[in-house]
């Protein structure tokens, strides 16, 4: 009977009542459950399907949540969520006011550590294991980490430390030979050799003092359970190498693992993707970046592309296909990506280092110490800037303007549309003697016609988009479109400042001298961002205007569609319109 076992399982204690021979049936039902929900509600798919047996075995063998289980990244934790009290709410996954797409401490005691960014699990589990030792608690601590995530520097730092402790730590490597895109690097080659068993080589994890076992078939429930039971009796740091297939159980997801990482809507029965509408849409900013860099690289051999593990998401894959020797996927290694770019820049190359805004947070010291301090002409393309939607608080790119604003030498530009993105990419490859961050959002812009002849953009210059009276709206980046829609029939001025740094001070003086009220608008945090800079400018020059700073409030923004979140933050065109109308009426009545 369909769902005959899963319907009785709400918590791992229910699972533990079952006989081991019933668990493959639970695995089958859990897979179907996930497929059915993700097919219509969307989300990450392949990673969770790949760890169904591992998830069941872990909750069956260990006494969660007393034993502490941490999922690295957490995009593979859907099975975990369903087995730990969230089956009935799983339909709300990633939606506004629904459960999070990632483990989250405030959501469940079984979510022992909040995740979303990769490669944190080993350090966090080790921290918990050391805490248990100090508190005299007898617990198991388990980190489950993927083959792409374990190649990140941070994971190595955790392994390196753990190997000289006697902490009760079990690291499980879920090796499916792929991240979002195929895994890269020498460690991937090493893991492939281990799997094949063809090449005699020292075991890296044993060399780091871990008690290593595996590789074992991660879809064999009885093997997994017997190995986990054995490992419970082994003292100190342990490492279990498990081989799985990403997308396991859905033919298309196994066959096209990149697409089915997060496939969007699909037919749950056939696995086929639901075709998007055939009307011509404006391009994604990612494709504007990807196509433009290829075009520019054809004429400028100094151009290099770098991505830390997001070739498909960033569209750098286009350049990797055309210029494989000049475009690099360095794996989940944001710090390395930035300093690699810095090294290239010292040798006269023009590196375009494309990193999601949220993941660039990992490389903050590298931006300051390796790039900006040496004033190296690295071009940072910050993808997924602003609110990203359903990935939520861990992934919104809302801090970049604030965290970059205070870095000397760094120029910060936000294109208002696809043409501006293209033109700034063209401009910087002509030659710059400073680093620049170009930030743009996830998804599509609004222009169908964007491949126009290139124009250079004057560094540090803003533009007047509409001349009105009394109220001046200063926008940065793609918020310009919302402003444009908001004020079509209002008598307000609109300026696209383009650069947060350097500020166009000449234009600002002109604006302050010809308007009574100033509104700034950005899709980033209002603390320390663009609006703060305008406030500081006004203060420095003793302007006494009323200044409204619109942006993301000083709190973490949860998940939901971008439009829903913009509405909550009053950054959608309707809210902006209301705000400007209010300001105009105050002025009219004064
Ligand atoms: C610091 C950071 N960089 C990039 C990402 C984007 N990202 C999410 S999952 C993923 C691939 C993870 O691959 P792996 O660890 O092998 O897990 P799998 O998806 O195969 O289960 C990447 C690159 C991230 N979450 N965090
Ligand atoms: C889990 C994770 O970090 C990625 O899979 C992320 O969700 C990708 O985001 P995009 O869909 O915006 O590429
Ligand atoms: Mg993997």
UniProtKB/TrEMBL annotation:
<feature type="binding site">
    <location>
        <position position="75"/>
    </location>
    <ligand>
        <name>thiamine diphosphate</name>
    </ligand>
</feature>
<feature type="binding site">
    <location>
        <position position="176"/>
    </location>
    <ligand>
        <name>Mg(2+)</name>
    </ligand>
</feature>
<dbReference type="Pfam" id="PF02780">
    <property type="entry name" value="Transketolase_C"/>
</dbReference>
<dbReference type="InterPro" id="IPR009014">
    <property type="entry name" value="Transketo_C/PFOR_II"/>
</dbReference>
<comment type="similarity">
    <text>Belongs to the transketolase family. DXPS subfamily.</text>
</comment>
<keyword id="KW-0784">Thiamine biosynthesis</keyword>
<comment type="pathway">
    <text>Metabolic intermediate biosynthesis; 1-deoxy-D-xylulose 5-phosphate biosynthesis; 1-deoxy-D-xylulose 5-phosphate from D-glyceraldehyde 3-phosphate and pyruvate: step 1/1.</text>
</comment>
<keyword id="KW-0414">Isoprene biosynthesis</keyword>
<comment type="subunit">
    <text>Homodimer.</text>
</comment>
<feature type="domain" description="Transketolase-like pyrimidine-binding">
    <location>
        <begin position="283"/>
        <end position="448"/>
    </location>
</feature>
<dbReference type="InterPro" id="IPR033248">
    <property type="entry name" value="Transketolase_C"/>
</dbReference>
<keyword id="KW-0808">Transferase</keyword>
<protein>
    <recommendedName>
        <fullName>1-deoxy-D-xylulose-5-phosphate synthase</fullName>
        <ecNumber>2.2.1.7</ecNumber>
    </recommendedName>
</protein>
<dbReference type="Pfam" id="PF02779">
    <property type="entry name" value="Transket_pyr"/>
</dbReference>
<dbReference type="InterPro" id="IPR029061">
    <property type="entry name" value="THDP-binding"/>
</dbReference>
<comment type="function">
    <text>Catalyzes the acyloin condensation reaction between C atoms 2 and 3 of pyruvate and glyceraldehyde 3-phosphate to yield 1-deoxy-D-xylulose-5-phosphate (DXP).</text>
</comment>
<feature type="binding site">
    <location>
        <position position="334"/>
    </location>
    <ligand>
        <name>thiamine diphosphate</name>
    </ligand>
</feature>
<keyword id="KW-0786">Thiamine pyrophosphate</keyword>
<keyword id="KW-0479">Metal-binding</keyword>
<dbReference type="Pfam" id="PF13292">
    <property type="entry name" value="DXP_synthase_N"/>
</dbReference>
<keyword id="KW-0460">Magnesium</keyword>
<feature type="binding site">
    <location>
        <begin position="148"/>
        <end position="149"/>
    </location>
    <ligand>
        <name>thiamine diphosphate</name>
    </ligand>
</feature>
<feature type="binding site">
    <location>
        <begin position="116"/>
        <end position="118"/>
    </location>
    <ligand>
        <name>thiamine diphosphate</name>
    </ligand>
</feature>
<feature type="binding site">
    <location>
        <position position="176"/>
    </location>
    <ligand>
        <name>thiamine diphosphate</name>
    </ligand>
</feature>
<dbReference type="InterPro" id="IPR005475">
    <property type="entry name" value="Transketolase-like_Pyr-bd"/>
</dbReference>
<dbReference type="InterPro" id="IPR005477">
    <property type="entry name" value="Dxylulose-5-P_synthase"/>
</dbReference>
<dbReference type="GO" id="GO:0008661">
    <property type="term" value="F:1-deoxy-D-xylulose-5-phosphate synthase activity"/>
</dbReference>
<feature type="binding site">
    <location>
        <position position="147"/>
    </location>
    <ligand>
        <name>Mg(2+)</name>
    </ligand>
</feature>
<dbReference type="InterPro" id="IPR020826">
    <property type="entry name" value="Transketolase_BS"/>
</dbReference>
